[in-house]
Specification:
This protein is of the alpha/beta class. It contains six helices and seven strands. Helices cover 36% and strands 21% of the residues.
């Protein structure tokens, strides 16, 4: 079994904001898998499908970001999902737009949705896929809740697509292989004299 959880805020007001990167990744992946995330329960929207005899769940908590863990815990308890089967997808200001990073465990890094999940699970040893949104020049809260500008959209969506492809790869490959493929630093161009 695998549970892919995309973090975001529900409602029109938050569509296409940086903080909704997790929702966007899950939607893109659902398109690839040809499924709709349209079932309502466990304080979220979810769906499931079978792939190579493995059950794959997709969950978008609808609690607002700070309470994402409530939906995740209810879902995991009901479907008896182990911590090793949980993958959380979310936005990260410490990663450049267009880049993603996979990680096996760690702190919330100040991300309120992740903080809530860690608190309610009582542990932080679960896998995550972080989508880069870059650092603002000013206060972070406003920044993450702003819509992605037209100039930024192409690069931002590059990260969303990379993350959805990483989810696809996780259906066939182990986490470390997918992590190694995606976490490589982009080579810096050699300056010409």
């Amino acid at each position: 079994m695998k549970l892919f959880v995309g973090l975001g805020n529900p409602g029109k007001k938050y569509e296409n904001t940086r903080h909704n990167a997790g929702f966007l990744v899950l939607d893109k992946f659902a398109d690839m898998a040809k499924v709709d995330i349209d079932k309502k329960d466990f304080k979220g929207l979810f769906t499931s499908f079978m792939y190579n005899e493995e059950k794959i769940y997709l969950l978008k908590p609808q609690t607002y970001m700070n309470l994402s863990g409530e939906s995740v815990i209810q879902f995991m308890n009901f479907f008896k999902i182990e911590i090793s089967e949980l993958y959380v997808i979310y936005d990260d200001m410490d990663i450049s737009p267009g880049q993603i990073r996979l990680k096996e465990e760690g702190s919330s890094g100040g991300h309120k949705g992740m903080q809530n999940i860690i608190e309610l699970l009582g542990r932080e040893d679960f896998k995550r896929i972080r989508v880069g949104i870059g650092k603002p020049e000013y206060d972070g809260v406003d920044y993450v809740l702003q819509k992605v500008t037209d100039e930024e959209k192409a690069v931002f969506l590059e990260g969303v697509i990379k993350a959805s492809l990483a989810l696809r790869d996780l259906l066939n490959e182990d986490f470390n292989a997918v992590m190694n493929k995606n976490n490589r630093k982009e080579p810096k161009p050699i300056p010409s004299d």
